[in-house]
Amino acid sequence: MFGGGSITLFRFRGIRVTVDWSWFIVLFLVILWMNGNFEDLLGESGSTPFLLALLAAIGFFGSILLHEFGHAIVAMRNGIGISSIQLWIFGGMARMDREADSPGTELKVALAGPAVTAAIAIVLGVVGIAAAGWTGFQEAVLLESRSGVSGLIALVAWLVSINILILVFNLLPAYPMDGGRVARAAAWWKSGDRNKATRFAANLGRLFGYLFIAGGIGLAFAGYVFSGVWLALIGMVINGSARGAAMQTALNSRIGDVRVADVMDREPVTIPGDLSVEQALDEYFLRYRWPWFPVVDAGRRFLGLIERDSADQVPEISRSSSHVSEYVDHDMGLYIRDDTPLDALLANQNLRRLGALMAVDADGRLSGVITIEQVGRALRDSAQTPA
C-alpha cells in the first residue's frame, strides 16, 4: 500500500513481521533525538546515553509492534486472518485478510491495540513510580535534568509518555486510525449499513487529515519545522487512506448484495483425504498440472489444501502408505463462507496470493471455489451496470 520493499524480521503464530525501508529513517531519528536528550539529562556523553537511546528506540517500536499484535490476535480470534504486520515510517500496520463481519467485531479489533498500549503505559508507570516516587518520576517524564533519577528510570518514563501519546493519537476519530474504526463501528451499529458507516468514517478521516496538514503548516511557520512537516505528512497519509476507503465503498455499493455463492465454481476438482500421496501425484498433480488442490473427507468437509511441493517432499518409499490428509495446509485463511458478501474479498491477501479461495457452507462442507478472475468479472459487470 505504501510502496517500497520490506524485510522480514520474524514470524509469530503464522504472522510475518516485516519492516519497510522507511522504518530505518525513523529508527535513526529516534536514536539521534534520544541520545541528545539523555546527554542533557545525565550531563555526560559517550556510550551510556547512546545505549539508553538505542533501548528507547527498541522500546518505542516494540510498543508499536505489541499494539499491532493486539489487533492481530483479537482479529484472529474472530476468524479474520492476518497475513503480516509491517513497521514503517509512521508506525505499524496489521494486514487483515478481510473486513470485520459485524460492528461488534470491528469494535473489538479496533480497541485491542489501544488496550495493549494502555496496559504498557500503566505497567511501566507503576514500575517507575515504585522506583523513583511520584515527584521524581513525574520530573523524569518531562526529561528534566534536575530530576536526579537514573538513566533507566528516565528511559521508563519516556516510554510511558510515548505510549500515552500513541494511545491518544490512535484514538482520534480519524479513519483509518483506531479511533476512526471505532467511529465506523458505532455508525455501522446505528445504521446497519457497513458501506454507509465507512463513508461517514472516511469523511471524518479526511477532515482530520486536512486539520493535521493545516496544523503542520502552522507549526512549521512557528519555527517547529520538523514537527510541522511530520504532522503534515501524517495528515496527507490519513487523507489518502480515507479517500481510498471512500472510493472502495462506492465500488462495494455497486456490487450490491452479491455473495460468494453467486459467482463461485460449484464443481471444483477435489482430492479425497484418504487418498495416498502417490495416487494424488499420479492422478491429480500430473494430470491437471495445478499447484494445489482442495482436500475433503468422505462427508465433503473441507480439510485444507495440498500443495505440489508438500506432496513432492514426501519420501518416495512412504508415498503409497501416506494419506493426503496428513500433509494438508489447515490455514483458516484459505477458506471463507459461501454466504460472504463479495466485497469482503476485495482486500483479501490470500485471494491475491493463491488466486482462489475455498468456499464452505455453514457445516464446513466444501461448496465451491472462487477465483480472483471471477471476482474481477463481477466487478467489471457491476461497473457496466447503471447505478
Q: Could you write a compact summary of the structure shown?
A:
Helix content is 59%, strand content 14%. The chain has 387 residues and is of the alpha/beta class.
Global structural class: alpha/beta
Largest sheet: 4 strands, mixed
How many separate domains make up the residues? 3
The fraction of residues assigned to DSSP E strands is 5-15%
Cα Rg: 25 Å
Instruction: Determine the mean pLDDT.
Output: 85
As laid out across the biggest beta sheet, the strand order is 1-2-3-4
Instruction: Say how many strands there are.
Output: 10
The helix count comes to 13
**Sequence of secondary-structure elements:** EEHHEEHHHHHHEHEEHHEHEEH
Model regions low in confidence, pLDDT < 50 over at least 5 residues: none
Coarse morphology: globular
Helix content: 55-70%
CA-CA gap between termini: 28 Å
Secondary structure layout plus pairing:
Elements: E1 6-12, E2 15-20, H1 23-42, H2 47-77, E3 82-88, E4 91-96, H3 103-141, H4 151-170, H5 178-191, H6 194-221, H7 225-255, H8 260-263, E5 271-272, H9 277-288, E6 292-296, E7 302-307, H10 308-312, H11 316-319, E8 335-337, H12 349-354, E9 356-360, E10 366-371, H13 372-384
Parallel strand pairs: 2-3, 5-6, 8-9
Antiparallel strand pairs: 1-2, 3-4, 6-7, 9-10
Helix pairs in contact: 1-2, 2-3, 2-4, 3-4, 3-5, 5-6, 6-7
